[in-house]
Amino acid sequence: MQIKNACLIILVFVYSGSLAQAPTLSIRGIVQDSLSKQPLEDATLSLLRSPDGAVVRRLRSGKKEFFLGNLPAGNYALVTSYLGYATDTIAITLRQTDTTGKRVRVLLQHSAKAMMEVVVHAAIPPAIVKNDTIAFNAAAYPTRPNATVEDLLRKLPGIDIDKNGNVTMQGQKVDKIYLDGKEFFLNDPRTATQNLPADIVDQIEAFDSETDRSRLTGIKETTGTKSINIRLRKDRRKGYFGKIYAGTGSGGGDGNSGVTSSYSAGGTATNLGKNWIFGTGNLNNMNNQFTGADNKNGPGSGGLQTLNNAQLNFRNDKNSKLTFTLNAGTNGNHTSLDQSTQRKTLLTDSSLYENRYSSQLSRNQSYHINAFAEYNIDSFSLLNLRSTWAPQTAQGSNLDTVSIATEKGSASWLSNQGHTSNSNHSNSYALNNTLNFRRRWRLPGRTLFVTLSQSYNHQDQPSSIYNLVDNFDSTRTLLGRTLTNQMNAQLSKDNAYNAAVSYTEPIKPGHIVDLTYGLNRTISHSDKQSFDYDSATGKYDLPDTLTTNHFINYNTIQRVSAGYNATEGKYRYQLGVTLQLSDLDDRNLTNATSITQHQLNWYPRASLFYTPSKGTSIKLVYTANTTSPTIQQLQPLPDLTNPFLVKVGNPDLLQQLTHSLNATYTNFNSHTFRNLQFSLQGDLSQHEITPATTVLSGGIQQQQYVNVDGVWHLSSNLTYGFPLGDQRKGNSSITLRGHYGHDISIVNDSRNLTTGLGWGSTLKLNYHPAEKLFVEGIGSVDYAGALYSIYPTQNTRTWVQNYTVDASYELPWAITVASNYNLQITGSQGTLPSKQVALWNASLYKDFLRDRRAQVRISAFGILNTANNFSQSVGLNYVQTQQTNIPGRILLLSFIYRFHHFPLAQKRNPN
Prior knowledge:
The two termini are about 45 Å apart. This protein has a 26-stranded antiparallel beta barrel. Strands 8, 9, 10, 11, 12, 13, 14 and 15 form an eight-stranded mixed sheet that branches. Strands 3-2-5-6 form a four-stranded antiparallel sheet, with no helix packed on it. Helix content is about 5%, strand content about 65%. It is globular. It has six helices and 48 strands. By secondary structure, it is mainly beta.
């Protein structure tokens, strides 16, 4: 606490002193007619601070020069307006190193339309609503220099980013990123959010993700996920920008890993013009905590990681008929993971307490090529193709030491203990292709859409298993010892083909009927051969019939659907129904048995979109979808990887049918800059696929998936955003969330109803009280409870608190100090104690060269030398806590060089 107070005092002292020392600068110039070069008297000049749009000074021009003095260094926009002339904007940068004021010459051009009134807005509304899209104005959420799009997203109300950089909005995953409405990032959205700079962004547009069918026919289809479109600033739509960086330092290990130094090197480059090109690459052994800037996500979910990645994106829009986008890249990691797990499993008349220590080494390298081509055959016909090829290699080994105690009434005893040593190697690849054809006619709304798709997945995975388990009774008498020592090889193949045709026909303006027929055929193979160790021969040559199996699954689904779509004024609604016929054929080739199932399902679909007033929207959506069991859930084969929890497939599983309801209310007030977002989600499942656990002799658990009914969930999110006094100084948002639901599992043939309930709140603070001071704060509190019908005395309740403070201040001479502190507090649960995990990072850096393109940076990660992450989770009949190793304290010295060139910006910038 003394260290924190001392740092705060130093920061306040430096901040107070620097205000007094900051040099003042000036802008002078003249306003003239662009043709006659005659001075224009009484033109209105407004000097706006960039990027937040705050009006710094306003005056009228005279017959001679105008003068704006006593200005601090920074980026500005000079907006000049005059009756009968087009408004002109000039970007101006004042640097602390400037010894003389800036001189500008403003040439105004006659406007074809006389200006009756000119208004320069001092503040920019944080967001606006465009139909079913929320558009956040980036200028209303000021970010520090060299911030990324991810930094900008953190400030937006309703948007959250987890430790791995995944983005969610109102609880829904963001799975697609567009750039100026165009597809450019076909793979991982984090490639865009973590590499693109925030200062190129004009707006962040968030909306429901849509399928190709929805995009090409206009018939709304929801996917349950969100998409984000990064709308570029007009003066950033042509040019190039990027950075290169390298850093090295000390630390990064946990004392036992042998890591004595840390490093990170890489770069990004983007070109926007007739061709879009994006490239990025990085190599580091510090869990991606530094990639040209300090990563606010921290060290991730756990482990010591050495990572590499490289990606190249290309888009060609030269031809008005043909557009082509290609992404290619690779990602790799080498992870050393030490994990301590405590798990309490609830049974009908007893509980199991498991203590596990795991040590894992893994190495993965994946590659991907994604392509998207769209060809406009003519003004009515369009053809597009999506293709993906993704090979991957992986290998790993893990050592586990486990002890399990059984508690029954007041008695408790060690029921089993043991250790495992497993290893595996995997080679796999996936190939996917989708071809879409759309034909429309002169009659608006008449459309034919045809889609053909194919996917193939192949995985070859040899592995070895060594398990030694001792079982005890309540008197600690050894009941038996089980040894598994085998090698196996598993080959899995999935082939899927899909064809669908849709037709839409207008019956009157704004009213359209849609008809669709679809056929999907999936063939899955899983062949596994296992051989036990033969001590007589010293080889693995004893066939194990228990874990050897050849299994094929055929799954055929036919769908017929019809819908009615209408747009009337402020209303847009949809009603429809789908009939689905499923044939599931499971064939066990090992024992020559088969199971055939036929299922007939029907479910409606409906949606309503209503815009009662400007800035307000209401949306209601009901959908349903089926989930087929995976071949791992079907294949009647025990998985002995974890000898204490043996999983067995169930070939009798049915498809799961899930009904979903989503309701949202959105309101953004452009006058008060306040916004309100509310969402409610609900789901109800038929034939829910859920685990059934049986405790065998000696306390070993066997788990098999079964179908149950009666599973449902409700969740809600309410976000209120508001300015902090003067909106230009900052903004804040408060989020309230809650969930309630019923889950069902089977424990020792007894039906266990788990009632889950919880609530939480998050406060976001984005404060920019002075030009060079940025303060961000996020605080959240979450409560979760689980009530078990089979063992109500073992109900669980957990509290988790998270607090993050991020601040930076620019000192004189272009020196900046920054700090990021995160504290996680997990409450106690039964015999499991409460935990606190604190992570503190800080940096000091100096910018130099023209436009501050170069930077020397000293970063300190994990200053408190925290050794472990901590997490807690609640399952259908268990509660679990985990501690995972993370890199310790790291000191890094780095150099970053940034480059950019925007011709459109330079035309208006005299610098």
